[in-house]
Amino acid sequence: MPQSGVSAAHCSWMPGRLSALAGWNPFNRKIESDAIARMMHAAWPGDTFGGMQAAGRFAGGDAAIIVDAGLGIAGAGLIAVATWGSPRLIGSEAIAGPSWLLALLPLLMGGPLVLRRRAPLPMWLAIWASTALLCLLAHNLLRGLAFTFVLFTAAYSLGAHASFRRGVAGLVLTAPIVAAISHRGELTLAFSAGEHGGTAAIGLAFLQLLAFWLAGVLVRARRRAVSLAEWSAELQRQAGQAATAERARIARELHDIVAHHLSVVVLQAAGAQASGKPAGPALAKIENSARQALEETSRLLNVLRDPDEEARLAPQPGTGELDALAASVRAAGLPVNLTIDGSLAALPAVAGVSVYRIVQEALTNVLKHAGPARAEVTIGCKQDSVTIEVTDDGTGQHGKGPASGGHGLAGMRERAAVFGGELAAGPRPGGGFAVHARLPLTGHLPPGELS
Length: 451
Hints:
Radius of gyration: 40 Å
Low-confidence stretches: 1-33, 35-52, 54-59, 399-406, 444-451
Number of strands: 5
Number of helices: 14
Distance between the termini: 107 Å
Order of helices and strands: HHHHHHHHHHHHEHEEHEE
Strand order of the largest sheet: 1-2-3-5-4
Oligomer: single chain
Number of domains: 4
Structural class: alpha+beta
Helix content: 55-70%
Strand content: 5-15%
């Protein structure tokens, strides 16, 4: 039995007709058979499901695109039923108007819903322009499921996917159309004030459209709040990772410094004991204690090392490399003036590394974010503390990305916190940016001194 509604009478003349057109031969005969099979093939449920899968692949698996397309198809289908089919089935009245407008009406009113996310304001204006054209060319009563679905979906989409300002602009632009159609009694949505129109009909139409628009605005606000919360959580997670990585780096540097000095103690104690002088038992205790301290320091601080990172054999930089650092930054195009107030010779090695790293990361931030600028680096060393100040006169914004060799402001604060110090960073009143850090030295001994 034919599957596609093509009768046997129709099929009887197809081979001869095709033969007459193409000229008969076995190859053409096969073409005729394939053509007849395609014409008689019906769209089975399996084919429909396959088409849906193809549409999903075309949309790239984006559920939003599929939903928008579905709403557009549903709106166009309902308008088509109200225009061409049996409008009473969906509670609508027969639509009057020019034949060309009736032919295009499903596309003009349902099609724009496909753009409800990407272009909500043009979608809203296009639907109301089509509605105004329909009511202008003929007297129509717009009521029932078709028009209610399209207009309510458009109002909600305008609130949910357009900015508040653009949404208000859309409502203001279409308000005269809504008022004119409602006043004539031609716009009847979910709730009606009768077919006589008037002020009550205008107010009721506006209230219904405004309710759906506000529902969309609330959904947009909630979605934005959730997005901001996720973004804030991600920033906190990144800050935590930066602090953890900086602690690991500080641990590596501390390990190298402490291990070096403890190794010196061990070697000196062992040498004194080998010299045969009378302080043998005391030096033996020093040696044993230092060896134990060295082992425990290595064991504890190695826990903080990144297992995937290779050990660095190069010596850690200190205050002695500040001049070379300033020279390298000048070579990169940033004028730098380095001023050192006081002697840094007695500065503990661990503090010297932190001073160098803070200056390095602050200057790197200037290079990345300040734009055309000059930098001033001032280091003050006192008996109980060391201060670092790095300023620039640039116009950019700092602190929005990790600096080379560290993690920006978070890493500098972490280094200051190791010494119980503080670090302040922010824009300068006269323009530019300033980083100020103070590292207390109480409890830190210069290398080679005993308590």
